[in-house]
Prior knowledge:
Layout: H1 5-32, H2 43-97, H3 104-125, E1 146-149, E2 152-155, E3 163-167, E4 170-173, H4 178-183, E5 192-196, E6 205-211, E7 220-225, E8 234-238, E9 244-249, E10 255-258, E11 261-266, E12 274-279, H5 285-297, H6 303-363, H7 367-392
Helix pairs in contact: 1-7, 2-3, 2-6, 3-5, 5-6
Amino acid sequence: MTISTAQIFRQGINAILSQQEGLSRTQAEIASGKRIQTPSDDPSGAAKILDIEEQIATAEQHLRNGEFALTELYLEEGAMTGAQNVLQRVRELMIQANNDSQSESTRQGIATEVRALRDELLALANTRNASGDYLFAGFQTDSLPFSINGGNVVYHGDQGQRRIQAGPSSLVPINDSGIDVFQLIKNGNGTLSVDNASSNTGSGIVQSLSQDNSLVSDTYSLNFIQLTPGDPVTYEVRDSSAALVSSGSYVSGESIDFNGAVLVLNGVPANGDSFTVSPSVNQDVFATLNNIITALEAPSTELADNANFHNDMAEGLNDIDQALDNFLRIRSNIGSRLNNLDRQAEVNENFLLRMQEAASQVQDLDYAEAISRLSAQSISLEAAQKVFIEVQGLSLFNYL
């Protein structure tokens, strides 16, 4: 068979190029540490790598989401701690003001401090994060949630609760709306509330209000009767339909029981004095503070005024305690979410490590084998080059 000179050159060059291609591929593998440079190197392995890389990217995103959620929740927890401190200070001031040794002027001074504390609480309710979003505005993160209008605090947000994906099946709330934190707070003892009529002229002061499991929920009017100054003070309890529920002689410090409710009063109510016992309703904490300020600024030197003041303080203390309980509930929920995020971050990190190990097993290079292969390919390339040099120098004229 006759082989042309062109064919000899072409075969020699192809052999060199083939060796160079293998050598270059091995060098690229060593440089990158990856045995799969293109999908054609290992189609099955390349498909696995794509799937693993997708899962790695998702896990990394979950970790970033978790870090963002932690920042938001720690910020909210700080605001709630400040809010609790404000209400604790208000409670201390109320106990101080509720002492009969206080004068109207000192109570006016306490009212001034309570008003400043209300404004401080309002600032906390309008807390913003590093991005400028309001924490307690629900979904309306770019709208100021609370503002004062005519002395009353108005909410402009909604009840939305933003959530973030911190894991494949972990959707974590990262905020609480202003409605849930500052407005949905039951007044009184959380089940019942008692209110004295502003027209009362006696010295009757509510000492306690409680209920048992037999409570019949309704609005009750407690009316005191004393036809002449020498007569004993009696009472009647009527429900919302004016039907008589209970009656008897009043004794200061003794309980008045009706339909599962237990009310204890001290002092001597006057004829016509009345109290209303009704189911607790939602009352926002700012309204509670405004009621306290109003009570502190009202006259309290006369006997009836003093009794009304003490009743307002007792009512305000119950409302403050309910608000503190709600703040504690919110903080407890925040703590649960923080713990959940910590656990989820650990799960995500472990999953990420497993995926990285799986990717390594599929695509990472065996350096010992690759270096040996590189050495062999280098020798083969050198041999091909030497053979080509020898062959290209062959000519029949050398032997003539």
